[in-house]
Each structure stands twice: as C-alpha cells, then as structure tokens.
Design a protein that fits this description.
Layout (H helix, E strand, L loop, with lengths): L3 H14 L22 E8 L2 E7 L1 H7 L14 H17 L2 E10 L4 E13 L3 E11 L11 E12 L6 H6 L26 E5 L2 E5 L4
Parallel strand pairs: 6-8
Antiparallel strand pairs: 1-2, 1-5, 3-4, 3-6, 4-5, 7-8
C-alpha cells in the first residue's frame, strides 16, 4: 500500500475487526475516519456480476465528475478487467481477503491518472459479507482532475492481502469437513508454480496476483 489514505483505512478496518474475518457494517464510525471520507465508498455486492455504490465520497465523485451513488462499480472497465474484478470481489466477500488495486483512470482527452484502490469486506448480520468498504485515491493531482471526467478505468496491478496470513476458507477447513472452496472459474484457479512468476500466488483472469501478507 503506497497511499496514506489506503494505509489509514486498512489500519482502521483491521483494528475494528479484531479476531473476526470482517467487522460489521454498523460498526463503521464516519467520525473516526473523517479525513478519509472524501475518498471512501461502500459497495453492495449480492451478485457475482454486480456491485453498486451505496455511498461515495465527494472527492471521489469529483474525480469522476459525476455522482457515483447507485452506479454499478463494474461499469467502465474493459471485459478482461471486469472479469478479474468479479473474481477479486468474490475473494473479498467469500474469503475475507483485502484487495489493493493499482488503477489507471482515462479521460476522453487521453489524459491518464494513476490511483490506488482498496477493497475490504464488511459483514451484515444475517446476510454475510455483502458490503465492501473501499477507497480510491489519486497518486497525484494534475490540474485537470475534476474538470475532465474519468470515463474508463484499467487495472495496472492487484494484490490480495490476507489479514490473518492465510485465506479465511483455509482457516475454516481446519474446523469444518469438506469446506466450500472459493468460486473462481477454472481459468482463475492456481496454475503450476513453474508457469507463474516468482512470488506470484495465482492468476485472476488475465492478471497475476501476488499475496500481500499482513500489510
């Protein structure tokens, strides 16, 4: 995590959850992260192919030059990146992973901005981890930011972070026979180590995922 907003939000979420896979949505106190609110958002993700913004900060909306509340988070990505994000969202919801994504935002004038995005699971009692707390922060602020809308986004890098050093479904397998494994497509499942770059964990769509450990 390179951005201070990303680091602070992750630390807040990690402290709030304690020994649980994720904190409850109701435990998020905006007053405790007041300085981050402009860059943060909350997604509702009940379907593998849809995640909608329930809340979006003012700076984030200004960067896109539009209100994001109610919009589909998966809109504005190319097909391969959208498939990778769907698999990534599944890891956040089902395996209690955190995800750090390097994003490039593109305007109609061919301008480009680098951003860092963080996705963190939130639990809703009786429904499961169907909310996602996130932030997306520019790594720099060029003069045109907020004047020319970001119309599309692409993934430059992604990293899954296991807060407890291993996926939640692995911890569950220590206690429950025949655990339900994460719902990745066949092509997203781990491939032989010999064909992965050094340090890589697995393929997600057309992208290579590196495990991020605890931080």
């Amino acid at each position: 995590m390179k951005n201070g907003v990303t680091q602070t939000l992750y630390s807040y979420w990690d402290e709030l959850r304690g020994v649980r896979p994720a904190p409850n949505r109701s435990e998020i106190d905006p007053g405790q992260i007041r300085g981050l609110l402009g860059d943060t958002f909350i997604l509702e993700s009940n379907s593998p192919h849809e995640a909608r913004y329930r809340l979006a900060g003012t700076r984030l909306c200004s960067t896109h030059c539009r209100e994001l509340k109610g919009r589909n988070f998966l809109r504005g990505w190319n097909e391969k990146d959208r498939e990778a994000l769907e698999s990534l969202l599944a890891a956040v919801r089902e395996d209690a992973a955190a995800a750090v994504i390097g994003v490039a935002g593109h305007t109609e004038r061919k301008q480009q901005i680098s951003m860092e995005m963080l996705l963190l699971p939130l639990n809703v009692p009786g429904e499961g981890r169907v909310r996602i707390l996130g932030c997306c922060t520019p790594m720099e602020r060029p003069y045109w930011l907020g004047l020319h809308p970001i119309l599309s986004q692409s993934i430059n890098s992604l990293r899954l972070v296991w807060p407890d050093e291993r996926p939640f479904f692995v911890e569950q397998s220590d206690r429950v026979p025949n655990p339900i494994m994460p719902r990745f497509k066949v092509e997203d499942m781990p491939i032989p180590p010999s064909s992965l770059p050094q340090g890589a964990e697995r393929k997600v769509g057309h992208l290579t995922v590196y495990s991020g450990g605890k931080a």
